[in-house]
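Hi again,

Forgot to attach this to my earlier email, sorry! This is the prediction with magnesium ion bound. I've pasted everything inline since the attachment limit keeps bouncing my files.
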Amino acid sequence: LSEFDLIRTHFRGVGPLRPDVALGVGDDCALLRVPSGLELAVSIDTLVCGVHFLPDCEPEALGHKCLAVGLSDLAAMGAEPAWATLALTLPRRDEAWLHAFAQGFSSLAADHGVALVGGDTTRGPLSITVQVHGLVPQGQGVRRSGARPGQLVCVSGTLGDAGLALLRLPARDSAAEHLRVRLERPQPRVALGMALRGVATAMIDLSDGLAADLGHILEASGVGAEIRLAELPLGSDVAEYVARTGDWSVPVAAGDDYELCFTLPPERSSVLGGLARRSGCAVRVVGEVTRGTGLRCLLPDGALWAPVETGYNHFPGAG
Ligand code: ADP
Ligand code: MG
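Structure tokens for the complex follow:
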């Protein structure tokens, strides 16, 4: 079987048939139609074996996650997912692996109406790059730069589940197996992100942890923020872990949450309940935007929490 058979077998017809795809997989380029009045939102992410996922990660989960992280970026912009391209570098040709990977990718693509319209396939150390393309009405993409003092800081879902899984699974802690789904199969908050167009003043998705990612909103907006850690939405495992160890870094700085963090004027907070219900995802107010710079995290007793480090830095020391 040639490279072309591989592509035909596993990567043709992934996702729905969309009328805006004039030409998909199989030619030199895909031809895509962007309706007038809409802007194209584009984001690309690479997952490297041993850096972004454990070498024993199930291929089906990997197929899910590599698309999920891209859809999470579209969600954070308020964009509606449309198309994806996939660059795969594989150490060898393994039909069972490819089949499972394509299943995970296709199933999430179908859930969100995303058509796979092209890609590239090469041999080398396992690495997966996905580019996602979404659509958003002109001028309505939710940027990081719109947060203003006095606005509320909100997060979706629960924080720290994936971080706790990363802490426990390498130690073969079987009691943590149920957290694996939060690490390996994040559900991008696409419906919530789209519902927050015109409501959220700034938004980001939480890939590197609340402290680091909210920090990006603060820097882009030229503001500070105060978070009350006691208000963070925690699942029972993370709540139990924090209560026992006093270690807030799991929900605040461990990353891989793929929840949304956004700001909005306090007078708009009455819409949050309805938005959360309609998009099937809980939303919680966790703090306020302040004047000045930087993030202050208040412990339940009111003392200031001092983070050790925030987020994952691929090039430490490089500034
Ligand atoms: P070219 O050499 O012209 O770049 P390729 O041989 O790389 O063409 O790819 C042939 C076709 O298959 C192209 O349409 C490309 O987008 C698509 N393709 C290649 N690899 C993948 C993949 N992993 N997933 C989806 N489409 C792919
Ligand atoms: Mg090519």
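The chain has a mean pLDDT of 94. The first helix runs from residue 3 to 11.

That should be everything now.

G.
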